[in-house]
Here is the input.
Amino acid sequence: MSNELIRLAHGAGGRLTGELVEELFLDRFRNPELATLSDSSRLETGPGRLYFTTDSYVVSPLFFPGGDIGSLAVHGTVNDLAMNGARPLYLSAGFILEEGLERKLLERVVDSMARAADAAGVKIVTGDTKVVPKGLADGLYLNTAGIGLRPEDLPLLGPEAIREGDAILINGSIGDHGAAIITAREAGFENCTISSDSAALWELVAALETGGVRLHALRDATRGGLGGILAELADQAGAEFLIREEKIPVREEVRGVCEIFGFDPLFLANEGKMVIFCPADESDSALEILRRHPLGRQAAVIGRVTAAGSSRPRVTLETLIGGHRLIDQPSGELVPRIC
Amino acid sequence: MSNELIRLAHGAGGRLTGELVEELFLDRFRNPELATLSDSSRLETGPGRLYFTTDSYVVSPLFFPGGDIGSLAVHGTVNDLAMNGARPLYLSAGFILEEGLERKLLERVVDSMARAADAAGVKIVTGDTKVVPKGLADGLYLNTAGIGLRPEDLPLLGPEAIREGDAILINGSIGDHGAAIITAREAGFENCTISSDSAALWELVAALETGGVRLHALRDATRGGLGGILAELADQAGAEFLIREEKIPVREEVRGVCEIFGFDPLFLANEGKMVIFCPADESDSALEILRRHPLGRQAAVIGRVTAAGSSRPRVTLETLIGGHRLIDQPSGELVPRIC
Here is the structure.
């Protein structure tokens, strides 16, 4: 059974689709909502503000040190909810499979999704499978949409809430995911030890809030890297940020890969890193909470908001040698298909 | 601007992604939820049971008589919610674009999505764009997930609610979508007048319920066609259905295409047709309500539930000449990539 290849008929909605769903998905994503196999799934949510998000995943290669397209698709969508302070509850999964894909490979991806969802406390409750002819995809593409809930009595997080003087923190070293993908693609880096940082960040967010930190804004530093998302946030907030390069954690191996390939870790993608904006006098307490968690051991205060309500939003980097450099959104393509 | 081609950088999360989002998506899907461009969108729902669904769309060709991948992606997901009696409220949109795609073509698809969403009363509130290298997709693939709400005081719809004696209705002729796709692909059918039936069915569902029809189950007859979804429903319900071929509306042109290509309209896909299960004594009233609506002019009672709680669930077709034939789920691939 597991040596089978995916055929067009697996996406045709007939008996083969049904078998694939029952044997492969139902078994791994076991939950009562999905088990009805209804056109749509009925959810229990309770009171609170509802959040909704989606991402498609086209990462290449499908498996890389520290993760795969399945765990990435869970973490990415869970994090998009967490960045608004919403507890992730439910995910959908939409598969686009390439004809000829090994069923075994699909099983590995689905296993990984199921583990990641379990660990993140979310349920995959609805899904869809399509198959396209050989050559019209790259193994498989995956979409996850997600629903989360934020208690009504907690304030809204976002660029509007960023204030002058806010501290800017990050929960760990940057560029790991981008560097892991680059080295996974290149011959000669088989012994490279860089793992993706792909991880679900909700627990960290919850720890900060239950620890009493008054969060203003969160953003995960995915595509565009730390530099890209800070530039975007400054624009959205109408604010000016000052970031100190010496404070930004970068792993030695990542720095090495960047030197070899000519990349700046500031613009390399992360999949388990977020920037945190909170009042300056709460940054010590935030740091302490972050460092207590495995995903925040290397957390650092990397800068501050020097102006809000600015007519010239910008991000300034104070370099290691004390110079100042403006950080802009990357305009081109640094590393394609990192997620 | 509009003669541009989509580049890998449009999916990289940097400035070009931002421009694409602002110029192309925000302008067309204009709504306050999307405009925040947050990681996830905050929704207003009000009380009721929440429903969640997703579908990916890989239809070929992207444009066909009666619709395109954009309108199809809205209708399909709206209908998945409507089949549970849930009012469709919010959609997500995940684009996977092929490098080199004409921006003009993408604009047409997005325009079509926006019109379909407006007409169906849903808002596209969150989205994502990825770009894959030329040759690794077929123009574009699209995923929509949807959220809908059903009032708490209305009963749950589904196979469990199907009862012996229930009438089985359909809202119009079958096989239109499948036949439209087939003829759109074949040379020599340029003058063919078959249009897809792609449409949002929520209004019809709402009309039935506000008209007092006690719905038991609904299912849209998409992949697998009317025959396929009846066989699946019979299995899920543990029920036996008797369907009368002479009652099933089939357009002459669709019958003609089926004869030429050797298809059975019973298994051709529909994108605006649903089967309706309701108490037999309400079928006249249901028919009347359906026929008053443009999407139900040709509605018909096509059969009935002959047994519930059956140990041998099955669908029997009484043919035009009075014979009986068991209807099973199609095992293979009838027409690939119809949605």
Remarks:
- Chain A has a mean pLDDT of 95.
- Residues 103-120 of chain A form the longest helix (18 residues).
- Chain A has nine helices and 14 strands.
